[in-house]
Amino acid sequence: MKKLLSLLTILGLSTSSSAMVISCGNNASEEKDDTAAKRDLNDLQVKDLGDVNGSADLATKITIDDLINAINNKNEGWTLTKSDVVLVGDPTNNSAKLEASSSSKNYKGSVEVKFNFRLSFNVSILEDVINNTGLGAVARPNTYNVGYLMVPSYKSEDIMSSIKRFVVPLLDMAKMLGTTISYEQILDVANIVFLDSEDNVFENPNESNQVDHIKITAKNGKENNIAGIHIKGEAIIKIKTQKPVNEIVKVTELGDIEISNKNDDYMTKIAILNAFYNKNSIIDDNLKKQFEVTSYADTEATINTVINSDYASNDIKVKYTFKEEVNSYTKWDLSKMSKNDDSTFQPTIKITSENIDNTLYTEIFNSITDTKNQFKSYWEDEYLYDQEGNMSFIFDNQEKVETEYYILNKGKLSSKDFINKFDTIFDVIIDKTQKTIKVSVKSGQEKFDKDFAVYGEIIFKYTV
């Protein structure tokens, strides 16, 4: 019967056509024959697949594709595809059960296979971290000097120290995925080569060797030396040297530092940094963001540069005396409102007329207290805490903002009362030629409430 069916197929005739019916016994017998022709999955000769490396970087579970490839590679003559099999239940890192899909034309039955699943750690992710691309961008702590690994000098130990500052947070991210790898383990299995701009190798570079880039690969024969991990890939990382931090840091005795609440960790660190900036005449906003307080006590603190800063990492020990503010208050700084992250912008405002009156005061107030448009960054990022230590706005026209990460409560001060005394707090100057409005705080009028004070000035471009 099978020979007859084959012949009909060669001739291009359909055995299911209504124009030709060939009797080969009952339907049950035909189905039995079809099933018998299928290969039983349990007939796999090799069911212990050994090491199976994840095909996707940092994937924590084996996939059906990984299993199929491993089975076909270990069992000669087997050509499983995704349409042939399905997973039964969730696989572990050591075993999985497969059964033939109902639509498979070649396989039947089921089989349990054993293996040792290895998470694939592609060292190219280190290059992605430096370049702020792909999955590596998630592990990058900031965007300073993207495209370069910043190093104190070309000495091998300084380069390795800078690599460590990037690698450790990346390994912490892998730990959150359930995979623990130590920095020492990475060093054991990684091959790191120092190269100049023409790819000449420095065996052990010193300060006089201008290293242009480094190449990181897995050491031959050590790809599987870390339990549950497979190391693969290549990373090319460009190098640039940092400036010595002592070029800008000259003063470490900070004197008295006023703080409103010693138990407020965030505001205490901000107070220490502000004193540090003032004593060392650091006024550039971008540079200010490149320092952080790593630890502090009642009389001293340690300040360091952030990862990949323009300036080399160096523990800066500073001393001071905390001075509790007797009448502490929250400071509202108009001069900071036109700054957004690392840049500044020109605030704009639409006014009813160029007359300096209560209507204009209301329009200016509504603009500078608007938390949703051009000053959103200031109100949500720069200004944070009220006197009870809660994140809060100032005025009652500033509605509560709630996100996944923080809550900013509605302000409590009366906006109506503030507008009524606007002209006693601010000087307002209109330049009709330049179409600008300058709003500045009058000397001696900064403290407009027992808990709040306003400083600085702001200049709007206006339209009528």
In short:
The chain is an alpha/beta fold and 464 residues long. Helices cover 25% and strands 29% of the residues.
Task: Explain what you see.
This protein has helices at 2-10, 27-37, 64-74, 124-131, 136-139, 156-176, 183-189, 265-279, 285-288, 358-368, 376-382, 415-420, 422-425; strands spanning 39-40, 48-57, 85-87, 95-100, 107-108, 110-122, 149-151, 190-195, 201-202, 213-218, 229-232, 234-241, 253-259, 291-296, 300-305, 316-324, 330-333, 339-340, 343-344, 348-350, 401-402, 407-408, 426-431, 436-441, 447-449, 452-455, 457-463. Mean pLDDT is 86; it is low at 1-25. Helices cover 25% and strands 29% of the residues. The radius of gyration is 34 Å and the shape is elongated. Strands 2, 3, 4, 6 and 11 form a 5-stranded mixed beta sheet that branches. It has a 5-stranded mixed beta sheet with strand order 7-12-10-8-9. The chain has 464 residues and is α/β, with parallel strands linked by helices. The chain has 5 domains: 2-37, no CATH class; 41-121, no CATH class; 123-241, no CATH class; 246-324; 330-463, no CATH class. The longest helix is centred in the middle third of the chain and has 21 residues, at 156-176. Keywords: Signal. Residues 1-19 form the signal peptide. This is Lipoprotein.
